[in-house]
Amino acid sequence: MKWYRSWAIVKKELWEFRRQKYILYSLLLPPIIFSVLLPSIYFIPLMSQVSHVDPSVVDQYESDPGLPTTNITVTKSEFESFLDNHSVNGVGFLDHALFDNVTAVGVRADDCIFESSYVRDYQANWSVLRDCTLMTGVIKNSLLINVTVRSSVVINCTGLNVSIWDSSIIRSEDLEVVSQNGGSMLDIISLLLDVYSFMIVLAPVITPTVIASYTFVGEKNNKSLEPLLATPASDSEILWGKILAILIPTILVTILSFVIFAIYTNIIFLQNLGYAPLPNDTWLFSMLILGPLICFLSITANIIVSSRMSDVRASQQVGSLVVLPVILIFIGGVSGAVSFGVPSMLLIGAILLAIDAGVFLLVKKSFQRENILVKWK
Amino acid sequence: MIETSELTRKFNSITAVENLTLSIREGEVFGLLGPNGAGKTTTVRILCCLIAPTSGSAFVDGIEIGTPEAGGEIRSRIGLLPENPGLYENLTPRQNLKFFAEINGVPASRIESRIKELLVMLDIWSEKDRQVATFSKGMKQKIAIARALVHDPKILFLDEPTSGLDPAAAKVVRDFIDELSRERRTVFINTHNLPEAERLCDRVGILKTKLVASGSPDELSSHLWRRRCMVRLESETSVDEKALLAVEGAYSVKVEGREIVMELDDPERRLPQIVSMLVGSGARISYAGEVKRSLEDAYLEYVGASV
């Protein structure tokens, strides 16, 4: 195997792709459709449906006449005891502050300890919360004990006896949730996030359908296969050259789609829910494992289709059927039949790897000079 | 340089080439003639190691075809011009040639100079960066020839090299083949164009699934016919046919109006004798000479005979 020959084919194909507007479209559209249009169509309207605050709960705390209200900014631990039994508003808490029986609204708390407190519109990180109620905020990397979480996002936290209310999003492995209730809008958003992260793998399915049809059927129609086959390149070198020529731009476009999707989605989430959900496991796994595997499958399947077709458009139409397994998994994810957790993703990846290997062996067997010249239509 | 022995290729029940035995010397221009479907392209494909023979053996530049390794080695020593140029139409001539130079392992430092050398020789250097799709068929054929030569192969297979070209473009291609012949490259031409084969080829083979005949164009004629001479008289004169037939080495005499056509052995010696006989009998002669049979005559005779 002399890779310089395969690389020569890759370069030649890339020169050709640059001149083919259909191929350029197929490379440009996935980032636009999957990364910008889909999040815009689905996430933005759903965000407006999320109930951020339950007014009755807020009123219960905010109208408590027994607590004096402080509007100062507190950043030093010297003020800890001063704020106990206070209601604070617009405060940044840092440096291991310890609070007891505080009503905190619109706060950011890093490395703090809250006990018996009500915290609303908050961002908390690396903190400890005990016997608290958390309302409309984001808490990360923290310990929660006897806590009620309402309309919040809980990321990478541990804890015991946690009650989840009002469609909170929980992304924490070691959280003992004792009760969960409330509206499902955030659950739907959370599910859609996983589903769309997975759905971007449609990009590496669709793009090879266009390119492979052009590469193989186009070469057949143009009668340019025979001169290529008359070079010293072996069948494998030609096959790998063709595969890599499709794989490389498709994978780059896929990664670009995932990255744009993550950036755009994070912007939407930060603006509406106060946290950036990506990257997560589904996103990473889809981009790094499923994307390349599905792309490879799409390429090899389309080579088989192209070998039996003499028309580029017919080849594209038949080749696009490769999208069906991905759609099935997608539907399974939406319906709940397929989970997008790491174990099921690993299983899907393993199955895809096996299918890839099988289809590649079929292609390798059929991709021989004699077959191409004599049997390919 | 190319040797085949009992080479046969079948496609299911159809025999494309049967028991083909050929020997082509280094530096020779060999033409394979035959009607459509005679197996010419199949023969070239076998010799280029694109398809395998069903039986028989073949050696190209001393390497026996049959294994993938041998195929790769043989293909590195040959250049193929298929019937259809099959260029990458979206690319420029330069990009087309660069790709084939790279895949054929031409050293990177040599690629640009080799491309320039070929495109200048074929008079298309000024068009090197224009998209191939915009070229005429003749121009495309020139680029395809340059492609076949870009790695400086010892053997060239040209399948219908002037097919579909206008006379001027065909002449450029023929002149180029002459040039290749002067460079002592071995050239294997498949063609229907019999005058072209007669002009270009040292030897030809007539294939109709089987090899019907082979040899130089003159040899093919001499195998079929005796040499013919014609004497044209200025005016119709009565000719003593018996006296002419009595000349040693004369086989037949046919008088049609002012023209006398004779089959003769050794016309160089006999024709002056005949001319003096005619002049002695009072005839005035406007022309005397040998009438050569064309390769086309021989081809039609061979192909017709083998139907």
Name the helix and strand elements of chain B from N-terminus to C-terminus, one letter apiece. Answer: EEEHEEHEHHHEHEHEEHEHEEHEH
Report how far apart the termini of chain B are.
31 Å
Assembly state:
heterodimer
The helix-strand sequence of chain A is HHHEHEEEEEEEEEEEEEEHHHHHHHHH
Query: What structural category do the secondary elements of chain A indicate?
Result: alpha/beta
What's the pLDDT, averaged over the residues of chain A? 78
Strand content of chain B: 25-35%
**In angstroms, what separates the terminal alpha carbons of chain A?**
28 Å
Write up what this structure looks like.
Chain A has 13 helices and 15 strands. By secondary structure, chain A is of the alpha/beta class. Chain A has a 15-stranded parallel sheet that branches. The two termini of chain A are 28 Å apart. About 8% of the residues of chain A have low confidence. Chain B is α/β, with parallel strands linked by helices. Chain B is 38% helix and 29% strand. Chain B is built from eleven helices and 14 strands. In chain B, the strands form three sheets. In chain B, strands 6-7-8-3-9-10 form a six-stranded mixed sheet, sandwiched between helices. Chain B has a four-stranded antiparallel sheet with strand order 2-1-4-5, covered by helices on one side. Chain B is elongated. The model of chain B has no long low-confidence stretch (mean pLDDT 87). Chains A and B meet through helix 1, helix 7 and helix 13 of A and helix 2, helix 3 and helix 5 of B.
Layout of secondary structure:
The complex is a heterodimer of chains A (377) and B (307).
Chain A: H1 3-19, H2 21-49, H3 55-62, E1 69-70, H4 80-83, E2 87-89, E3 92-93, E4 98-100, E5 103-105, E6 108-110, E7 113-115, E8 118-125, E9 128-130, E10 133-140, E11 143-150, E12 153-155, E13 158-165, E14 169-171, E15 174-180, H5 185-199, H6 203-221, H7 225-229, H8 235-272, H9 281-307, H10 312-319, H11 323-335, H12 342-366, H13 369-375
Parallel strand pairs in A: 1-2, 2-5, 3-6, 4-7, 5-8, 6-8, 7-9, 8-10, 9-11, 10-11, 10-12, 11-13, 12-14, 13-15
Helix pairs in contact in A: 1-8, 2-5, 2-6, 2-8, 5-9, 5-11, 6-8, 6-9, 6-10, 8-9, 9-10, 9-12
Chain B: E1 2-11, E2 14-24, E3 29-33, H1 40-47, E4 55-60, E5 63-64, H2 68-77, E6 78-81, H3 93-103, H4 108-121, H5 137-149, E7 155-159, H6 167-182, E8 186-191, H7 194-200, E9 203-208, E10 210-215, H8 217-224, E11 227-233, H9 241-245, E12 250-256, E13 259-264, H10 267-280, E14 285-291, H11 295-305
Parallel strand pairs in B: 3-8, 3-9, 6-7, 7-8
Antiparallel strand pairs in B: 1-2, 1-4, 4-5, 9-10, 11-13, 11-14, 12-13
Helix pairs in contact in B: 3-4, 3-5, 5-6, 8-11
